[in-house]
Structure formats: C-alpha cells, structure tokens
Design brief:
By secondary structure, the protein is mainly β. The protein is built from no helices and 11 strands. The radius of gyration is 14 Å and the shape is elongated.
C-alpha cells in the first residue's frame, strides 16, 4: 500500500503563488510517474502536470509558464510551484502516483486533495 500526503494549499490573491507538496510513503518497488490533477465544484477532474521517469515534465496549456512540477526521487516527493495564480485555478488539487509494487504490478494512487482558492 502507498499513501500520498499533500500540503501547501490555501487562500491567495490573484497573481499570488503557492507551492504544493506531496510525499509518498508505504511499501513499493518504484514510482515511475507522479503528477497533479485538479477538480472544481461541478466540474470533472482534469490533469494539471506530470513528471515521468525518462521524460521531462508535461503541463496542460492553461498552466504552461506559470506552474512548475518537480520531483525528489530519493525522498519520494513531488511539488507543484504555482505562480501567477488566477481565479480559474481555484480547485481541489490531488496528488497522483503511478506505482510499481513489490510484485511489479502497476497501481495508481491518489492523495486526499488540498484546497486552493484564488480570490480577491
């Protein structure tokens, strides 16, 4: 089993910044990919950014140039630096991890979500 614990959400004014962090713990062989999704009330959960072994980061068009995803593979963490926040960024942000367990089976895990509110 893997647990993902998120932190860093909060209330910021438009143009402000937040840094979300996610730490993975538990029993696993490897975590080849981690990322962030978000979901606003009444809307579908959508991809924000991912970072995968062997590839550079990927961002959806709406956050390119504003958000930066990074990993510390030794600590099994992934961060999302969010700059120039806009009201449309308001959502619950979820950490996501693709995990290889000790039996080399592939599983997907989600964090509990952290609220990001951008409002003046």
């Amino acid at each position: 089993q893997v647990q993902l614990v998120e932190s860093g959400g909060g209330l910021v004014q438009p143009g402000g910044s937040l840094r979300l962090s996610c730490a993975a713990s538990g029993s696993f062989f490897a975590i080849p990919a981690m990322g962030w999704h978000r979901q606003a009330p009444g809307k579908q959960r959508t991809l924000v950014a991912t970072i995968t072994d062997g590839d550079g980061p990927y961002y959806v068009d709406s956050v390119k140039g504003r958000f930066t995803i990074s990993r510390d593979k030794d600590k099994n963490t992934v961060d999302l630096q969010m700059n120039g926040l806009e009201p449309n960024d308001t959502a619950v942000y979820y950490c996501n991890a693709h995990v290889e367990d000790c039996g080399l089976d592939f599983e997907e895990y989600w964090g509990q979500g952290t609220q990001v509110t951008v409002s003046s």
